[in-house]
Backbone:
């Protein structure tokens, strides 16, 4: 017996969703949005949540925001600090165009952004002297590409709850922050760009109203 149906279902690389888990040895794709981590102090965590990330003045890959898909890497920062003063953010990162840096004294180690790249990526076990533990690392040039989503690790539940409350308040403030605040499409459940609505049309088969960005639709 054959079964007839109309509709579609697609798989997205993460560009329009909350974040895709990517293994440390997988290179981020240009349009992807990925789950990553960043380690910092308790005091700096409060500032980042309230005001957003700022570029570092330098580092192994030059200025930018340093993140990793390996939570073990993020958990070791800040270096030489007490574990009671370490917080690990869970992030949503849009890496954009990525340059692989996999050896010491790479010709683009500090100049990748000037060549049109948005992120520099050091894969795991690259053998670089500046990465003795061999853990994956990324440097994102534009802080706006990095968003704090949650707290992955905190010294205790009191600090964890405080920081999560800050994230919730900051997120609500951004969503309701006036002109340009993002809305969510009622059909595809994705954010609209700068408040502009998604294109909607009737399904040719069942006549149901659909959004052209819906990841799946099955006719009743």
Residues:
């Amino acid at each position: 017996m054959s079964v007839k149906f109309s509709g579609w279902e697609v798989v997205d690389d993460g560009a329009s969703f909350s974040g895709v888990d990517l293994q440390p040895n997988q290179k981020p794709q240009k349009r992807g949005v990925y789950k990553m981590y960043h380690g910092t102090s308790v005091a700096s965590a409060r500032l980042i949540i309230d005001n957003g990330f700022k570029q570092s003045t330098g580092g192994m890959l030059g200025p930018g925001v340093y993140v990793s898909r390996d939570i073990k890497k993020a958990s070791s920062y800040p270096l030489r600090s007490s574990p009671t003063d370490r917080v690990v953010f869970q992030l949503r990162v849009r890496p954009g165009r990525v340059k692989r840096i996999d050896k010491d004294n790479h010709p683009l180690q500090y100049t990748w952004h000037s060549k049109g790249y948005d992120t520099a990526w050091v894969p795991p076990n690259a053998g670089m002297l500046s990465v003795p533990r061999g853990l994956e690392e990324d440097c994102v040039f534009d802080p706006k590409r990095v968003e704090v989503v949650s707290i992955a690790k905190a010294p205790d539940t009191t600090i964890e709850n405080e920081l999560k409350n800050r994230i919730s308040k900051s997120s609500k403030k951004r969503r309701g922050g006036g002109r340009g605040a993002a809305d969510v499409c009622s059909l595809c459940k994705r954010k609209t760009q700068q408040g502009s609505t998604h294109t909607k049309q009737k399904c040719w088969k069942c006549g149901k109203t659909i959004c052209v960005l819906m990841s799946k639709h099955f006719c009743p």
